Amino acid sequence: MPLLAPIRSLGLRSSLRPAIRRLRPAVETSQICRYASTKHPKNFKPPTQDELEELRERTIEFTRREITHDVAQATDHKNEFPLDMWQKMGEAGLLGVTADEDYGGLSMGYQAHCVILEELSRASGSIGLSYAAHSQLCVNQLMLNGNEEQKAKYLPGLVSGERIGALAMSEHNAGSDVVSMKMTAKETDGGYLLNGTKMWITNGPDAHLIIVYAKTEPEAASKGITAFIVDTTEASGFSCARKLDKLGMRGSNTGEIVLDNVFVPTSNILGQINKGVRVLMEGLDLERLVLSAGPLGLMKASLDCTLPYVHERKQFGVPLATQQFIQGKLADMYTKYRASSAFTYSIARAVDESYTNPEIRTQDCAGAILYAAERATECGMDAIQCLGGMGYMNEMPAGRIMRDAKLYEIGAGTSEIRKMVIGRAFNREFGMR
Ligand SMILES: Cc1cc2nc3c(=O)[nH]c(=O)nc-3n(C[C@H](O)[C@H](O)[C@H](O)COP(=O)(O)OP(=O)(O)OC[C@H]3O[C@@H](n4cnc5c(N)ncnc54)[C@H](O)[C@@H]3O)c2cc1C
């Protein structure tokens, strides 16, 4: 099926999970390749293109059923996440794509994660963003850095959708320069007391489990940061000071969270003490890669709302789509989508297929999201322009798509920082720091 053909209504009401599971027959023990991948789940086998296409179809079925135009519009207009969506996504098997099957995950890797995030974001940018914060920033970070006990304790609830996950690095005065964070973690009997605030935390107002970065040795700067698993349901002193009112991604609940003498047991240190930057960096490249699928979905959404409109609406006696200025915009939107998609999926495929010794290039992961994010905002703007007056009306999705897309030039590191990261990666290859 051509990628941008209208979505077929498959009419299937069954949950995605059994269907996706059928896609991934259990690997015969004799076929299991023993390897030491630190980035993929146990027994990971890269998915075939057929499996990925089927996964895309199944995700589209899910979004057609559960994230309709009305749901996406209401999420944006009310600035409220539909909380029952977590359980629905969990039941459908969407929440643990990169997690071990032992914990309920799909063990399908990063291409699959991109496919799901792309299609969720196509239906609703903000539901896609909250999904990514949960399944990539929290679930995948736990997969990559958690010990067996932590994974067994926390992953099943996150994968089933019973519990909501988040990750908290940024603070008011520590965004791009995140290692200058001020939150402290002081050792006490059996654990640490965390004090400080974190800003702009996706899912912060709802999260049950947050991976929080804090300074265990403030004077050691970047070498004194530790990552902690904070169970907000057990953490007295934890609060969400406010839910933030945003330009876009409305309904992806973003909060300022406060930790006031929150006790975290030693068993909830993620990774090693004072090695939080390693945990942070471990996740960043893959986070940039997977998140680049959010703008892909928004570009597709721009085309979804623009193509039918300009073919139906007539001005000067002919459909808008026959005017060269409009054709030029459609061509730009489509080409930007296709180029961004090829970039993201080629990198995701390289990561999955090199699973025995994962090859993750910083400049590729940062480049994929840098490119896709800027193109998605442009596509959103073009969609508004093609729709004219209706593009400016909130009853149409074009404005929402443009507002949602802009976030990807800021969140998870800004475009400017991504360019610095790419430049520095080249510097390192030339032996410079
Ligand atoms: C909706 C939303 C959701 C978010 N979700 C999360 C989350 O779940 N968890 C989390 O921890 N954080 C989250 N963030 C925070 C996000 O990662 C930061 O906003 C981002 O890293 C930028 O930091 P800042 O806002 O402090 O901007 P600043 O660092 O103050 O930057 C302001 C401007 O200056 C530019 N700039 C900064 N330094 C340089 C430089 N050295 N050279 C050139 N230009 C520079 C930036 O590119 C930007 O254009 C979220 C943010 C938003 C808006």
TrEMBL record:
Its cofactor is FAD. Coiled coil: none annotated. This is Isovaleryl-CoA dehydrogenase. Residues 50-162 form the Acyl-CoA dehydrogenase/oxidase N-terminal domain. Pfam families: Acyl-CoA_dh_1, Acyl-CoA_dh_M, Acyl-CoA_dh_N. GO terms for molecular function: 3-methylbutanoyl-CoA dehydrogenase activity; flavin adenine dinucleotide binding. Residues 166-262 form the Acyl-CoA oxidase/dehydrogenase middle domain. One of its GO terms (biological process) is L-leucine catabolic process. InterPro entries: Acyl-CoA_DH_CS (IPR006089), Acyl-CoA_Oxase/DH_mid-dom (IPR006091), Acyl-CoA_Oxase/DH_mid-dom_sf (IPR046373), AcylCo_DH-like_C (IPR036250), AcylCo_DH/oxidase_C (IPR009075), AcylCoA_DH/ox_N (IPR013786), AcylCoA_DH/ox_N_sf (IPR037069), AcylCoA_DH/oxidase_NM_dom_sf (IPR009100). Residues 274-425 form the Acyl-CoA dehydrogenase/oxidase C-terminal domain. PROSITE patterns: ACYL_COA_DH_1, ACYL_COA_DH_2. Keywords: FAD, Flavoprotein, Oxidoreductase. The lineage of its organism: Eukaryota, Fungi, Dikarya, Ascomycota, Pezizomycotina. The keyword Oxidoreductase applies. It comes from Salinomyces thailandicus. Belongs to the acyl-CoA dehydrogenase family.
